[in-house]
Write the structure tokens for this entry.
Amino acid sequence: MAANDLEEEFDYEADLEDLPDHPPTAQVIGDPSVIVNDLHVTYHVVGSRTRASAPTNDNLLKKILRKGRSLTGGHTEVKAIRGVSFTAHHGESIGLIGTNGSGKSTLLKAIAGLLAPSQGEIYVSGIPSLLGVSAVLMKELTGERNVMIGGLALGLSRKEVDERFDEIVDFSGLGDAVYLPMKTYSAGMGARLRFAISTAATPDVLMIDEALATGDAGFRERSRQRIDEIRGEAGTVFVVAHSTASIRAMCTRVIWLDQGQIVMDGDPETVTNEYRKHVKELTVRREEIRAARRASSA
Ligand SMILES: Nc1ncnc2c1ncn2[C@@H]1O[C@H](COP(=O)(O)OP(=O)(O)OP(=O)(O)O)[C@@H](O)[C@H]1O
């Protein structure tokens, strides 16, 4: 990854002014809602990690003749989560931070029950919801129809969805675009609608993966308030965001992941400060490597 990409990835200043400078209100934390015990998650990927040598016509022919065998080579295991343990409580909002590929999304998917642990256990009290409704929404249908589908998927009745429809649309900020097919929405519009539907019912455990990055300042402020309300109603919220400013504004606790392991787990200020230092060091180190490469090829 280039140093520029790395800096974009850690958009830690960009939205500071968009967000209130007070941290989330302190909440008395309740009983455990999620217990993760020595979790390991491994992806099995068909294909070799090593670069294939350019095939000559001769060995390509041989490969084609070896019918039924994979042309892609070996089988690779990606150990995305390696021995993660923590306990989350009712009333907490936990930010997950870490560089690209550190395992944040994988951890959320495992808590949501979408990925099986290869080792370890996850206990969840209540129903986890990974932006609960994303899987059931249909791009060909209008936002309006999707509000109904998503609401029903969350366990609301048809009448309850009808009653909450205006509120959901107001929250999403979509206006009349809600009557257009979702496939016509920008990434941000789709993310805002998913967030609005997912939080229409108060979930026990809500997981938000990057949805907030796509919203504007007003939407982010509404989201922050909604997350506070969910915590107030004894829910637990997990938030993945690359912006440490958003994380500090929304979370009562932060877990920093690196290469599938926990580096730090603690209060937002301490963890994000340490993380920012780490990112700055990484950026400097990568810039030095690039400069050395440029010098050696000159
Ligand atoms: N479906 C998959 N198949 C194989 N490997 C995967 C798959 N999804 C993720 N990985 C790998 O697992 C590791 C963790 O990925 P994950 O998406 O959980 O990280 P992340 O911290 O959410 O990254 P990002 O910030 O880029 O979204 C990475 O090495 C990634 O390449």
Notes: The first strand starts at residue 32 and ends at 46. Residues 132 and 198 are 5 Å apart (CA to CA). The first helix runs from residue 3 to 9. The chain has a mean pLDDT of 80.
